[in-house]
Amino acid sequence: MRRSTELRLPRTLDAARRARRFTAEVCAKWRVPGLAPDAAVIVTELVENTLRHTGAAPRLELELHRDNLHGNELTVKVTDDDPREAVIRESGYPPGLGLLLVAQTSEQWGCRREPTGGKTVWATVR
């Protein structure tokens, strides 16, 4: 079974907080509250990266795949209008650690270009 929902976020200082609250509410509604803590870390980092590194407003999408054999998998996606690929920075400077945290928290993550010219950064948690 597959479920998905999305939230368009404004370019405001509380966008990451709104995204975390939305994620927690959706995980509770979908009865996967155990996925909420890791998803909240990922959502925070991806939304803040969009706000910090682009001029775009982020769009958050959550997608749940239920699988009796492999368990539940939640994919967090944040889309923006900036075509620059999201990459992990090699420096140890704290503002560059967001995607490293996403990589360490998630099962897998990636970045793909959108036909509209922007990108989607995604990560999965189990």
Give a short synopsis of this structure.
This protein is of the alpha+beta class and 126 residues long. The protein has helices at residues 15-29, 36-53, 98-105; strands spanning 2-8, 59-65, 73-80, 108-113, 119-125. The protein has one domain: Heat Shock Protein 90.
Describe what you observe in this structure.
- Residues 10-123 form the Histidine kinase/HSP90-like ATPase domain.
- This is Histidine kinase/HSP90-like ATPase domain-containing protein.
- Keywords: Kinase, Serine/threonine-protein kinase, Transferase.
- The chain starts with a strand and ends with a strand.
- The chain has 126 residues and is α+β, with helices and mostly antiparallel strands.
- A 5-stranded antiparallel sheet has the order 1-2-3-5-4, with helices on one face.
- It has helices at residues 15-29, 36-53, 98-105; strands at 2-8, 59-65, 73-80, 108-113, 119-125.
- The chain has a single domain, classed as Heat Shock Protein 90.
- It is 33% helix and 28% strand.
- It is globular and about 40 Å long.
